[in-house]
Amino acid sequence: MQEKKGLPAESSEQTTVVDVLDVAQEEAEEVSTSTNPQDEMYCGVPKAELFDTGIDGLNTEEAMSRLAKFGRNEVVSKKTHPLLKLLYRFAEPMAVMIWVAIIIEGVNQDWVNMIVLGVLQVLNAVVGWWEEFKAGNAVDALRAALKPEAIVKRDGAISSISAAELVPGDRVMLLAVDGIVTATGKHTFFGRTAALVGSVDEMGHFQKILLKIAFILIGISIVLLTVTLGYMLSKGGDVLDTIAFIVVLLVASVPIAMQVVCTATMALGCRKLAAEGAIVTRLSSIEELAGMDMLCSDKTGTLTLGKMELQDTEMASEGFDRGDIITHAALATKWKEPARDAIDALVFTTQTLIHVCI
After folding, report:
1. Distance CA 120, CA 126 (A)
2. Predicted confidence (pLDDT) at residue 101 exceeds the cutoff of 50
3. 3-class DSSP string for the chain
4. How confident is the model at residue 203 (pLDDT cuts 50, 70, 90)?
5. What is the separation, in whole angstroms, between the first and last Cα of the chain?
């Protein structure tokens, strides 16, 4: 899995996106053919005025003005503050059982057991939180290193800038034609989609399994402890001694470190994947991806290496062989320039191998 393209209570992550209008299409059509006045505006500015960019592109002053007005070309997603994640560790089902045991030991004034349980509680929470925090830092570092750039024309000169600095009306240099940026950030199609997806906070499959196991074990433990408590009291046992014994059984019967061990294991896998150039947004997604039988994906490099390999060629007519097909494909690409995408790289590599074999 490899992707090479994303103190207040909440911080944010940014993903760079952009909508581009083909210049040839723009010259052939109006920017918008809708009769709805709202469709003729972009953030309160007429589209006809905003996208009427000359052949030399925007000037630097206008670009900076639009950047200040429309914001950076980034999709901001909510991210829970690390301290809140740490506090949440103390409210998980397993942690709640330990809190109950700590309270009981405190009532019995068994300070040694109370301190031991408290230390165990803190260690479980901190270790799990720290492993997840380090995995998140590795992903953030990779995302920062993979900031995309765009070739833009401003002040009549072509230059490379961070894609996050693109503004509506920018003239960008694409592979085949020039393009005019028609939307940035949250106003793009991707930005609107990301906002809808981000509003759904669904628990991962692996987390659901762990939570279900925890509730089952806790339920069984409560039933057994209740029966044990009733039996010992019916035999005339001391109440405090009985409660102390119940606490020991409670701590022994519940796998307190289950969540920590699972988190630490997935965090190690996340850091290893990050070293290979993969961006893992959720730790539980590692287990979910490993459980797949079949993955259908495009060739954008989102979940692949971004590399293609020619397996076979189908001939539409007689008189041509594999070498002819690859040669014509190579001539159709910009063979004087370095390969810009996976398809061009595939054609060049295959053509080179054919010549070497010949």
Report:
1. 10
2. yes
3. CCCCCCCCCEEEEEECCEEEEEHHHHHHCCCCCCCCHHHHEECCEEHHHHCCCCCCCECHHHHHHHHHHHCCCCEEEEEECHHHHHHHHCCCHHHHHHHHHHHHHHHCCCHHHHHHHHHHHHHHHHHHHHHHHHHHHHHHHHHHHCCCEEEEEECCEEEEEEHHHCCCCCEEECCCCEEEEEEEHHHCHHHHHHHHHHCCCCCCHHHHHHHHHHHHHHHHHHHHHHHHHHHHHHCCCCHHHHHHHHHHHHHHHCCCCHHHHHHHHHHHHHHHHHHCCCCCCCCHHHHHHHCCCCCCCCCCCCCCCCCCCCCCCCCCCCCCCHHHHHHHHHHHCCCCCCCCCHHHHHHHHHHHHHHHHC
4. low
5. 36
The domains of the chain are located at 10-79+152-198, 307-358
Distance from the Cα of residue 351 to its chain's centroid: 36
Residue pLDDT, tens place only, 9-46: 334 445 555 565 554 444 434 433 444 545 566 776 77
* Residues catalogued as catalytic: 298
Length of the chain: 358
pLDDT of residue 35: 44
Reported as a pLDDT band with limits 50, 70 and 90, residue 88 is confident
